[in-house]
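sorry for the late reply, my laptop died twice this morning and i had to redo everyting from scratch. anyway the thing you sent over, i finally got around to it. pasting the sequence first so we're on the same page, its 153 residues, then the predicted structure underneath. double check i copied it right bc i was rushing
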Amino acid sequence: MTWLRATLLAPLLALTASVSPALSAAQPAPAPLTVAFIGDQGLGADSIAVLELIRDRGAELVVHAGDFDYTDDPEAWAAQIDGVLGADFPYLITVGNHDRDRWPDYQAHVNARLARQPQIACEGDLGVNSACRVGGVLFLLSGAGTLGRDHDA
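ok and here's the structure:
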């Protein structure tokens, strides 16, 4: 268990060390933020039901931990999210092993979404080796073991 913790935490600690002062600076206590954490979403009725639950429970942000749709269809995946949550709903991602072939396209969809989110400040390679601040909460988004390099530098 100690090895597992060290394996998972080392890239995040390295990422934290490389975050700019603007993102890592002490912040006032954050306002409450309701975040939905999901992964292995897929496309179809069950996935839509999860997005509807996120919307209906009042989540203000989704953090999606990879394996977006299993069909390598970033356009359908983005359309599914937009259809339920809207094109401007705050959404952060990390790359999953099933996303690698079309990663630049998934990442472009989310970068376009984030460009419409002035309350979210991100730096780095989104979803691979990045940090995003939403209000007073700092999210470290790492693809360690899946994509990218220098996660431990």
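The first strand starts at residue 35 and ends at 38.
thats about all i looked at so far, will dig more tmrw
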